[in-house]
Write a structure and sequence with these properties.
This protein is mostly helical. It has one domain: Winged helix-like DNA-binding domain superfamily/Winged helix DNA-binding domain (Arc Repressor Mutant, subunit A, Orthogonal Bundle). The protein has 6 helices and 3 strands. Strands 1-3-2 form a 3-stranded antiparallel sheet. Helix 1 crosses helix 5 and helix 2 packs across helix 5. The longest helix has 24 residues. The protein is globular.
Length: 169
């Protein structure tokens, strides 16, 4: 991989993975916003509803872990989504300090509408790559996300992947 420093010592954003990931995320947000059906939910609201779809009644803490959205942002989002009628929230029986979160009927309707928008935006995002690279790219992103999960769980990143051997032909 190319160095992230330019010959003059400056940082080369065009080669910085962190910057490139952020640019991809911005591009996806733009693609999603242009899709019909996306007007009712932001990408983060869609993420929350998608995570809750098969995890009804989880705590906000578990939702933070599932979505990667930080605790304070998620708490504020959940408050606004409850006000909009997209979610319901109540104290758990086990821990009266924790909230159990569930999707409301209108939240399910918004999720169904936004799901098609998200799928089209994701296809458009991947269209920037040759078809033969798309699955490998998604797999690499999943590996990075897995390292993030490991880091959040035990404070250390997953060990570096070993370089694969190239076949010589």
């Amino acid at each position: 991989m190319k160095a992230q420093r330019r010959p003059n010592g400056g940082f080369d954003l065009a080669q910085a993975p962190s910057h490139l990931i952020r640019r991809c995320q911005q591009y996806y947000g733009d693609l999603y916003a242009q899709e019909p059906g996306a007007r009712d939910l932001t990408t983060q609201q869609f993420t929350v509803l998608a995570a809750l779809e098969h995890n009804e009644g989880v705590s906000q803490t578990a939702l933070v872990e599932m979505t990667g959205i930080d605790r304070s942002t998620l708490a504020e989002m959940a408050r606004r989504m409850v006000e909009k009628g997209l979610l319901s929230r109540e104290r758990t029986e086990e821990d009266q300090r924790a909230n159990a979160v569930a999707i409301s009927a209108s939240g399910r309707k918004a999720l169904r509408s936004a799901r098609l928008a998200a799928e089209r935006a994701e296809r458009a995002l991947l269209d920037a790559l040759p078809a033969s690279d798309r699955a490998r790219f998604v797999k690499a992103l999943a590996q990075i996300a897995s390292a993030a999960d490991a880091h959040a769980t035990n404070g250390s990143a997953k060990p570096r992947a070993k370089a694969g051997r190239r076949k010589r032909g």
